[in-house]
Amino acid sequence: MFGNLFEEDEEEGVSSASPKGRVAKGGDEPPLPRGRSNLCGIKNQGGTCYLNSLLQTLLFTPEFREELFSLGPEEIGCLGDRDKPDSKVRVIPLQLQRLFASLLLVDQQSASTADLTDSFGWNSSEGTNQHDVQELNRILFSALEHSLVGTGGSTFIQRLYHGTIANSIVCKECGNISQRQEDFLDLTVCVCGVSSLEEALWNMFVEEEMFEGNNLYRCAQCDRLVTAAKSAKLQKLPPFLTMSLLRFSFDFAKCERYKETGRYSFPLTINLRPFCEQTKGDDSDYFYELFSVIIHKGGCYGGHYHVYIRDIDQLGHWEPSEEDCKPKTQKKVKLEVKEACEPKLQADDPLSVLAAIISQESSKSVLVDQLGQKLMDKIGSSWNKKFRKHYGPIGKFLHSHNDVFILVSNGTRVALKADPPSSVTEPPVPREQTNNADSSAASEPEPFEQHAGPDQRPEPVKEGSHWFDLNDSTVTPIRESDIEKQFQGKESAYMLFYRKTQLHRPGEALNNPQYKVPSHLVQLAQEENIKLQQMRDKFEATNNTVQLRLHLAPSYRLENGALQPANKGLNESTALSFDRRKTVGDLRLTIYQMQEFWEGDMALTVARNLPAGLHLYNTLIDDSVSLYSAGIYTNSDLFVWNGKEVCGATILTGAEWEPVLLTVVRPFLGDDGAKETGDVVAGEDEGGALENGGPGLKSESRGFAGGATLGEVKEALGEPKESVLCQKRGQQGAEEGGGASGWRVFPPDDMHRTLKELSLKDGDALLVLEPQSFDSSVFTLNGDVVTVTTPSDCRWLQVEFRPHEGGGGKGEKQEERRKIKVPATGNMLLCEVKQRAIEELQLQEEPGAPYCLRQVDCTGKLLPPVCEELSIREAGVRLMTTLTLCPGNAPKASQLFLHFSVGTAPSAGMEMGIILERACSVKECLKSMLESVGLDGTCWHLRRLDWCEEVGEPLMDEDASLSELKIISGETLVITEGHLPPKGFLKLSVWLYLDPKITETYLNCVESRNTDEQLEGAVTADGMSHSPNLCGNGTELISVGQVEISDEATLEELKSQVLTLPALQNVCVPTTAFLRVWQLEGQRLARILRGQQVTLRKLKLTSGTDVCVQQLLKEEDLGPKEVLLHVKMGVPGERSYYPPEELVWDASRDSSPRSLRTYVAAHYGLSPDSLLLAKHQPDKHIWEEISNWSQQVSKKKKKKKAESLLGAPLHIKDGDTIGIKNLLIDNNRNFITLQDEQGQQRLREQAEQHKKRDRAAPSDAAGLQKKAGQPKTRKPEVALSINVGVFR
Fold first, then answer.
1. Is 136 helix (H, G, I), strand (E, B) or coil?
2. Where are the beta strands (DSSP E) in 693-789?
3. In what ranges is there compositional bias, type Acidic residues (predicted)?
4. Helices of type H across 919-995
């Protein structure tokens, strides 16, 4: 009818987060048990909410359910026989029986309809296409009728749902009546122009339509056109009457669909006698009562279905909300008492505060790990600040007051015992609940009861009128009054189901879900319940087992401000699996048993592996606290020691003493002995001065305690007081032929500041200079800036002449290989270098025998000719290196030099060379190579060489250009016989994330070693694809190649294969966990790929996707709801920010703005209320402020639902930049910087230019207007169908 117009709203789906607030480890989490309603929901397959709503309605139609269960295996067969030949197994009724039995008897929160939809013949895509529920109702009943042909149930649909309408036309001339009977399954009633169901039925079955004027009726008896009256009456009423409301209409003026959202009322009971043809009989024959309302939420192009159902057999547990149970006066008094008691709850009495928090929860219990957050929400202060000093940790406080609190759900939740000690924190108990209370509690007077009059008691709910809202997997009790809310609006009633009031249920059917369920289905449900309980027990045990890493003090020593293993090459940690529900004392006893020779006290301290080494934080003191309450989770590091010292050295613990790993840089003046002390860093961009013993810098990594002052660092380095410490400022503009880098000198006042106060982080560089260093020309001091400059005598290139291109042969005479030095600068063209070399070597370049310049790698192999149209710097050639002058042509800037061979991978020096245009296609490239070697035919294709110089992946797209495929100069292609292989692997382009803190050493190492010439050529030929400010912190990306890998490979295997790329041979990581993989979209970092063992198919990677690898300083394994953010604090009084920091925010339990603000405040050690946060939109150069959602809500209104930052409107994701304003010291609430204003100005200028072009091209205006007026593209409509076998 409507196809798949109703697309499922994502926000209506069921959250995948565990309600217990924890994430499952390893295997799948078993289905949750039923909730308090004791009713089972149905899982949504992606767009099957319409099917779920109809199935729940049929399930709660007892007569339909019992007719279905009455069909035995002798009539409809067994599912086990459906594959046998000539077997007539009625699969659809059998699967419907199983689904209904599961919904009634299996203890799970929601059941699956996958088997049922498979019996419909639906594929996986049908589960995501939503259809009209009225259309499904008709098609499903038709499929059931066809499936039950020849059985005792072939007519039960007809008996229960089919009725008859008598259509009559009465001739006003002769009185002749022409009557026609019409069968109906449901009545479609009009909504437009009417206000109620009764009015619509009156128009259908009471009002007459007159044929008069130009619209006359031809009477068969009069045999002419006459005036007549047409009417319709209900002739036969079915036991169950289905009403479909015409909410969706078509506007012919606008040519679009729309939804009627006006008020349309319908009664809970209705008398159909006025609309029937025969009005004789008892009133009970015409009275119907409402028992199901299918509701549609949304518009005509998208929405969601759920259903209100009356529990006729009282199978569920219906209970009103706490507020509904209390009289109005009692609620008012409660609010007054709450306001009077609020100051007492904020006093220094943690017992009453915690009791009040727990008692106000609807479940009367709170997750232990969420109790601290709820305490902060209640009193505005954390437990550590308010109570820890006097009462200890919150877990210890709960254990010490076991007369008040009790831990439930295996220690994950805390609840109150039966008799809370404080009357303030105990909520008033309604009179209906006093029968279940203790005798002592019943004898106590209730101060609120005396104010409630007899007319103010809550209205009792009559038996059989229990209503539930079944919304896919969620089941919620509601009242009859809630149905009136569905009379109008975007969320309104769509289908109504009535049943005759004379249909009564037997007493044995009430509260009996097994009533008339076949015994074999009951047995299947019992077996399923046993299996589910076993799965839950196993999962609970597995989920509470944590993997701990124990570090023993005798295996460590204090070095550089952190604990280092005594044996560098060995892993000093001991793995231990332990139940987190056990206490710290149990863990301590277990470790004592493991370490038989341990003597003295044993302290367990939480530790973390940092780049500088192992650091200790808080010590576990209370032995009675469980590991869960102590904050010990899987993969936690615990340091086992005596609590005082390690190998005689005192250990400083806590976050303020976190060690920082710094790169200490010193002058290097060619002393051979100094080469052993650290890595050598070149002094300029174009190259170092190390080949001829010139000056440079050497670096080493040293760790220091974060609480140490800069003066203490200088003493630890053994430097005299006159030495100068400098911090890297960044690269400065290079001078002619040389380069310079700038460093900022720390002022004397900074010598008394700690490394944390100076914001020094892991990887930051520290230059150490003695006063005599400024006597050389390398180091220049200007104010507080030190400039490191490469001297001008390093501005040269060496050119070696080889008359034969292969070179290096034994027969070549040594005198033919002559070398000269050519003075050069970075801006000098390579053609000038070649011309000077030819002149000094006294050579002549003939027109038919040109020369070219080529670089040489460390093995003596000639690299591709360099482009002579470029400068030395643009071509990536470093000064003070050697170029080879040999016969051959040089490529132009638009060309590539490629090696190729036929059949197999070429041996060194045996490949052939060819120069082609970058825009040349693969097909044209193959043709040119075949012509150069004298081959013909079409059964050839090209392949690349892989990282181990073997024939690798084929070039699949023959029409793509070489530049599009990122084929670089010097690459080797292999001409392979045969057609292109079929597609079976993913081809992923790999980029390297250039983090300035980590990759600076990597790039310097690349520039200082000849073994990396290939990477330099790759970068130059590919243009070094820069993407500035991808993350808002100035980082850039560089292309490093492509990989071909199966889509069934895991993310860990992808990381391992990426590390084998030649361009990444200098990237060294201990394990793949030190690599972060991003997915790129439009040259921007889009999302982080998570899960080491997740396949690329599940990560939804397709061929051609761009991925980016980022080297990390520590291992990382992000969870599905952990978001990586770049946060930067605003500089007080300025329109700028401090350098950004990476923070991992865990949004799995709470993704609200309050959670993010609390997390950021804890990181900076500030109060959450003093921070103002905003998200940066780099495309628009604007900042979106993140509201704190702390506005007051009226007491008459319900409490606002916490907003999620992961959804609309902010959609915070990996890599987003979050700006922070500390309002205590910064009154400027504006996040816009000067760069943002400049970017906004550029956007406005671009918009003006677009407007001018539009005005200049009026002929295109009509086309643009037509395009703008086109409706949004919708999915193609797919007809709904159910496949049924032939059973006649």
1. helix
2. 696-705, 724-731, 740-745, 765-769, 779-782, 785-789
3. 1-13
4. 922-933
Do 964 and 641 touch, CB atoms closer than 8 A? Answer: no
Residue 49 bears catalytic tag: yes
Which residues have C-beta within 8 Å of that of residue 924, sequence separation ≥ 6?
916
Q: Which of 40, 131, 296, 304 is catalytic?
A: 304
Tokens of 1019: 């970068």
Q: How far apart are CA 383 and CA 385, in angstroms?
A: 6
- 320 vs 459: CA distance, rounded Å: 11
Give the Cα separation of 585 and 630 in Å (integer).
Answer: 12
Closest CA to 518 of 65, 1156, 1026: 65
In whole angstroms, give the CA distance from residue 420 to residue 427. Answer: 10
553, exposed or middle or buried, with CB in 10 Å at 0-12, 13-18, 19+? buried
CA-derived radius of gyration, the chain:
40
What's the token pair of residue 401?
Answer: 């007051």
Q: What are phi and psi of 821, to 5 degrees?
A: -105, 130
| Backbone conformation region of residue 309, classed left if phi is above 0, alpha if psi is from -120 to 50, else beta | beta
pLDDT digit string, tens, across residues 1243-1258 = 988 888 888 887 776 5
364 dihedral zone (left: phi>0; alpha: psi -120 to 50; beta):
left
Q: Using CA atoms, how far apart are residues 569 and 475, in angstroms rounded to an integer?
A: 58
Tell me which residue has tokens 């232990």.
Answer: 368
Total Cβ atoms within 10 A of residue 116: 21
* Single-letter residue type at 518: P
If phi over 0 gives left and psi between -120 and 50 gives alpha, with beta otherwise, what is residue 346? alpha
Query: Please, which residues have CB within 8 angstroms of residue 82's CB and are 6 or more apart in sequence?
Result: 89, 91
Assess contact for 1059 and 1041: CB atoms under 8 A: no
CA distances from 849 to 886, 890, 909, 1228 (A): 10, 12, 21, 70
Sign of CA dihedral 866, 871, 877, 879: positive
561 contacts 659 by C-beta, under 8 angstroms: yes
Please, are residues 173 and 227 in contact by the beta-carbon 8 Å criterion? yes
Q: Number of C-alpha atoms within 13 angstroms, CB side, residue 533? A: 8
Single-letter residue type at 465 = S
Tokens matching residue 1263 = 């086309």
Which three-class secondary structure state does DSSP give residue 1007?
A: helix
Q: Do 1042 and 1018 touch, CB atoms closer than 8 A?
A: no
b or e along 412-423 (b: 16 or more beta carbons within 10 Å of the residue's beta carbon)? bbbbbeeebebe
In this model, does residue 42 exceed pLDDT 50? yes
Does residue 811 surpass a pLDDT of 60?
A: no
Q: And the tokens for 399? A: 């254990």
pLDDT in tens, 882-899: 899 988 889 988 899 998
Cβ(217)–Cβ(225) below 8 Å: yes
* Total H helices, total E strands in the chain: 26, 59
**DSSP conformation class of 485:** G
Residue 968: HSE in the Cβ half-sphere, 13 Å Cα cutoff: 22
**Distance between CA atoms of 410 and 379, rounded to whole angstroms?**
28
806 touches 911 (CB < 8 A): no
Q: Which two tokens stand for residue 204?
A: 């259908």
Distance of alpha carbon 1272 from its chain centroid, rounded? 27
Active site residue 899: no
- Whether the predicted pLDDT of 849 surpasses 80: no
With a CB cutoff of 8 Å and minimum separation 6, the contacts of 416 are 355, 358, 359, 364, 404, 405, 406
Residue appearing with tokens 């628009």: 1180
When the pLDDT of each residue in the chain is averaged and rounded to a whole number, the result is: 79
pLDDT per position as a tens digit, 1223-1246:
888 888 888 998 898 898 999 888
- Distance CA(801)–CA(820), nearest Å, equals 9
Beta bridge partners of 307: 294, 470
3-state SS assignment for residue 1020: helix
As a whole number of angstroms, the distance between CA 991 and CA 1005 comes to 19
Q: In degrees to the nearest 10, what's the CA dihedral of 573, 574, 577, 583?
A: -80
